[in-house]
Amino acid sequence: MGDARTHVRRRRLVPWAVVGLWLAALVLVGPLAGKFSEVQQNRAVDYLPDSADSTQVARIQDELPGGESTDLVLVYHRDGGLSAADRQTAAAQVAEVEGAYDLTDTPRGIPSADGSTLMYPVSSTEPGQDEEARNAFVDGVRGIADGTGGLGVEVGGPGALGTDMGKVFETIDGTLLLATLGVVTVLLVLIYCSPFLWLVPLAVAGVAAALAMAAGYGMHELFDVTITGQSGGIMTVLVLGAGTDYALLLVSRYREELRRHERPYDAMRAALRGCGPAILASSGTVAAGLLCLLAADLNSSSGMGPVGMVGVLAALVAMTTLLPAILVLLGRRVFWPLIPAFGSAPKARRSLFAAMGTSAARRPAAVLAGGAALLGALALGTLNLSGDLKQEDSFTDRPESITAMETLAEEYPERSSSPLTVMAPTDRADAALRKARSTEGVADATAGRSGAGWTEISVFATAAPETAGETRTIEALRDGLDDHGAHVGGLSAQQLDLADSESRDRKVIVPLVLAAVFVILVVLLRSLVAPLLLLAAVVAVWGAALGIGGLVFEPLLGFTGTDPGLGLLSFVFLVALGVDYGIFLMHRMREESLNGAEPEAAALTALRTTGGVIASAGVVLAATFAVLTTLPLVPLVELGFVIAVGVLLDTFLVRTYLVTTASVLLRRRMWWPGRLSRAPEAVTRERQPEPV
């Protein structure tokens, strides 16, 4: 009797204790979560590895008198030619800028060959590294430089581009969070068909997001982890998308167990025991895949690893502790109007996934071959992916800095409007300046500030920014100035270093991700064949999703380039997240096999029981990543599109047809060399409760 009372008391107290602990945690982490956006770094140099030449240039610039400079270009343009009044207006406005701000030098106007454009390079060290001060400087100059009577005035240059980019990232966190919450809310209402149930996982996901932001801020402060607007946005999507997936799996299993157990507490324990290993392994594969990014050379990618990992782990902890506690406290009534009564059987209805599985099982070889051929054909679309994305093409809505860059490229074809920056040791600066001027592809070079043993040299290439011609010039400068101990940086050099580092990271991280995920799958499934099948499937999905991107980005969306990081990041997310659904399916298939089902029956039962949950989870995850396509940055649009398409392919083609048909064809060989691959009597000996 005493044990029974203790058990009842535990059922009542444990959920309240869990909720109380989470409320206390929210009070503690809330202020830290609010600081997450404050530590984001969005300069191009913040993405680069420490060893990059352009990174060294940026660091040395910080040590020069005045520190980092903010470089702008004021562009005055009138079709048909500038008038004398236009030139007077330009001179007066530039003089006003010089009077309002401490400039490094008196701006000098440079006219275009046809007389239609006049550009004034403007540089100041007054803002320094302070982002708010830099933005205020750019906005102040834009307020002074104003055209009237048909005179076009634009403020461009690296400083203006950085400000425009920063303003976009400032809006991402809030916009992305609200849009993602809206999408998830609509989908959960449709999936649960309940006016109340959808609120619970959504509220828990919000708590998980706050915990993840606080942890991300803590990692930055304690370990100097680089956090960018991109990684912060993706972390939000991961928390809400993956967290909702875990909630869907748990709630579905909990609904099943409520029909078998009278008390919600006991039903939840059984649900956690049944699907807990799959959720744990699912989050483990995502976390392990993301942690592999720590080996990346790029600061942005290596920082995204731990940032994304804490997002997934926060979702895991919240959905396996807080969500169960709240559901138990609310009891069966949270499922109203479709309340699962104790002892009842679910409403008999024809399962779409049962029908799909049955049709696939009739001719499994043909279905498998057809599906593989389709994925292979779609992957051919990668041949249509265009070259690396230029910074000027990174915005879906072109800001003023980009239009200024385009005007300069058209009106000054003989020289680049964006200077390359050479940092040379002061005692060898004169020789470095002569060498730079004599380098093929250089239009002009001038010496600037000196300090801390270094001299700054601005080099103007003859080719337009981020073209093959300018790339050859950068490489020639680096080869020629290497003996002078100089470094070559600047906006275009940063983009070149970015692409080189991305190429190196792909070669290192892809094998690491595959190895890490494979080990986790082997431990969970106790097989070598099943993990290899799942990995082959998600790699095929990745190739097909990229191929669809190649057929859409330029032909339909008009994108003129592909972000260099698209291949690596989409691979990491699609492999880690795609394996999730394979885990859900295979874990249930293994559970059915352990209970004595024949291989084909186990595969079809697993598809019938988990197909709806996997489909719902896939749609939710795809929709959350699709929210990225609404943002004004092409790299995020491309990444969101590829991942969303890949998740849908994985959900409705690979899991439903290809993995199921492969399981039917392989039969017990699917579980080789584990006991499930042997005779039925060996399976009986292995039957035992799964670990919680």
Question: Would you mind describing this structure in some detail?
Answer:
With 692 residues, the chain is α+β, with helices and mostly antiparallel strands. The chain is built from 21 helices and eight strands. It has a four-stranded antiparallel β-sheet, sandwiched between helices. Helix 6 runs parallel beside helix 8 and helix 9 runs antiparallel to helix 18. The protein is elongated and about 90 Å long. The C terminus is likely disordered.
User: Strand count, sense and closure of the main sheet?
Assistant: 4 strands, antiparallel
Poorly predicted residue ranges = 686-692
**In which order are the strands of the major sheet placed?**
2-3-1-4
Termini separation comes to 27 Å
Tag the structure with descriptive keywords:
4-stranded antiparallel β-sheet; alpha+beta; disordered C terminus; 8 strands; 65% helix; 692 residues; 21 helices
Describe how the helices and strands are arranged:
Layout: H1 2-33, H2 44-47, H3 53-63, E1 70-77, H4 84-100, E2 110-111, E3 117-124, H5 131-144, E4 152-156, H6 158-192, H7 199-223, H8 229-258, H9 264-291, H10 299-330, H11 352-362, H12 364-379, H13 400-411, E5 420-425, H14 429-438, E6 442-451, E7 454-461, H15 468-481, E8 487-489, H16 491-525, H17 529-552, H18 566-594, H19 599-626, H20 634-666, H21 680-686
Antiparallel strand pairs: 1-3, 1-4, 2-3, 5-7, 5-8, 6-7
Helix pairs in contact: 1-7, 1-10, 6-8, 6-19, 7-8, 7-10, 8-9, 8-10, 8-19, 9-10, 9-16, 9-18, 11-19, 11-20, 12-17, 12-20, 16-17, 16-18, 17-18, 17-20, 18-19, 18-20, 19-20
